[in-house]
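Translate sequence into structure tokens.
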Amino acid sequence: MKTLLARGWAKLPHDPRLADWAARAAEIARDAIESDEHSQQWQCDKTWFVGVDVLHNAPDGSIGDVSLAGRAVEELTALYGAQHWHRAQVSVVRPGYPKPRAGESDAAFRYRQHRDAAHVDGLLPVGDKRRRHLHEPHGFILGIPLNETSPDAAPLVVWDGSHLIMKQAFEQVLGGMTDARERDTDVTDAYQSARRRVFDACPRLELHARPGEALILHRQVLHGIAGFADTATAPPEGRMIAYFRPQLAEIPDWLALP
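Result follows.
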């Protein structure tokens, strides 16, 4: 995991065990994204399916008799310990993305278009002014592609090495606090300032992977989703990626862990 810690992301090669899991997950995901139960998760004029908690995997990550296994799982376990795998998000993007999200301001849509809606996970908007607070401290992000697409079909975007800038900024604001105080602290100004430094200093990379491969992101890396290019190809359901973001029990761990 040297790449993950040094650059904020890692791409792991094909593992047949993970490919088996992805194939089973894809079967369930195709049904879920077309169901009335999850219709409200379609956003941006039905070009982006957010897909939170859509995949009904077991706490050990398995789906039926297919285990969540492979090199990515083994290396994450070695680095961060055994995980309780929440129900995975299934992110789906279709031709036409990005389009404005319901209620999105013109400025927010321009940010989606030109900056890939770049963000650090877990910083949630609070109150009428939507000030950012760290309410969901994730340990890491594991992305598992569920189908074959071209590299320009709304790939995951990262700013290479941005986790180092972000980590320093958050430590200056939150370091030494208790969990309760950290959750109550407005980090908006520090976050936005650090984000501007990232855009100036860190290369923007588009990450593409195939079923059986894995994308791992550091919890503090700046990342987003690129547009679905006019030249892109994907199956009828669109580009599908399953994401796991196991939450940490305490915010201090979000700062202290590698």
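Note: The chain has one domain: 2-256.
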